[in-house]
# Entry
Amino acid sequence: MGVGNLYNYYSSKDDLFCAVLAPIVSACYAMFDKHHGEYGQDVISMTQESYLLSAVADYMSILKENRTLLKILLFKAQGSSLENFKIEFTDKATVQVKTWFANNKLRHPDMNIEVSDFMIHLHTVWMFTMFEEIIMHRVTGDAMVRVVEEYIKFEINGWKHILNIE
# Structure
């Protein structure tokens, strides 16, 4: 297929770029929805070992199966409609987590949900920073698993304390 023929399928370079990156964009949103969506994890289940193993697998899937696309999305999207992906994702995630907190508060009345939007925002940014650092430093294999596992353990324990859950 000739390059000019691509525009029979895509109206612009940006449409083509977004189509190429659609799998990683979808994977990021799917993972977040799995954890914090309307039918996401119960906050108490997130303190269990099975959650840790599942979350590590989710993050590793993004990093292993979509590493090249993730690298393009995080480092090469300038000038495209995905240029502000991290900002837009983080803004949506902040709203979604606040809703998730409120839904969990109904099931767990002692849960503290008085958490600043900025704290929620920072935790999403931190996830992207971890992805970027893993890519920039070419972390792979067991070292990557260890970094992801430590990151998730740190988040779980931090949120347990902030949210006042056992």
Summary: The CA atoms of residues 94 and 117 lie 6 Å apart.
